[in-house]
Amino acid sequence: MRVVIIGASFAGVAAAFEVRHIHPDAEIMLLEKQDTLGYIPSGLHLYWDKKISDLDEARFVTEGQLDKHGIVYHLNATVQKVNTTQKIITYDQHDLSDQLSYDKLIIAAGSRQLSEKITGSAQESVLKYKRYDEAQAVLIKVEESEHITIIGGGQVGVEAADLLTTMEKQVTLVESMDYVLFKYLDEDMIKPIEKNMTEKGVDLRMRQTVSSVEMESDQKVTVCLGEGSVTSDAVIMGVNVRPHLPFLDKTIKQHTDQTIAVDRYLRTSVEDVFAVGDCIQLSGPGEDRVYVPLINNAVRTGIVAAANLIEPSRTFKGSLRTIGTRVFGKYIASTGMTEAESLFTDRTVESHRQEVRLTSLADSDTVTLKYVYDAKTHELLGAQMISDANILEKINVLALAIQSKQTLEDLQQTDYFFNPAYSQMTATTNLIAWMDERADEDEN
Amino acid sequence: MKIEHFLEKNEVREITIFNQLVLNGGTLSYGKMLNHLGVSKASLENDLSSIAVRIEGFDQKVQLQYDGQTIGLSMSDDLSLQQIYRLYLDQSIKLQIITFLFKHQEFSITQLTQKLAISESSLFRKIKELNSHLKEFGIKIRNGQMQGEELQIRYFYFQFNCYIEDKATFLAEHPDDRLTQMIDAMEKFLDVTITPENRERLKIWLIISNARVSIIDKQAKRLRTQMKAYRKDPFFHKIQVFVLRYFSRYSIEVDEVESMIHFAFLLAFPVLTEPDFHEYRLLRDRHAPIASMDTLIAETIINHFKYRRLPYMLERDMSYHLTHIHTRLYFFQGDIEIYEYEGIIAKEKQIVGTNVVSFARTLLKTSTKTLADKTGESNSLLKMELLKYISLLVLITFKMASVIQVGIDLKMDGLYKETLGELLILKLKPIKGVRVEHYDPTKIYDLVLTNEEPKDQANYDDARIYILSEILSSFDMVNIQRIIQELN
Question: How far apart are CA B146 and CA B134, in angstroms?
Answer without folding.
Answer: 10
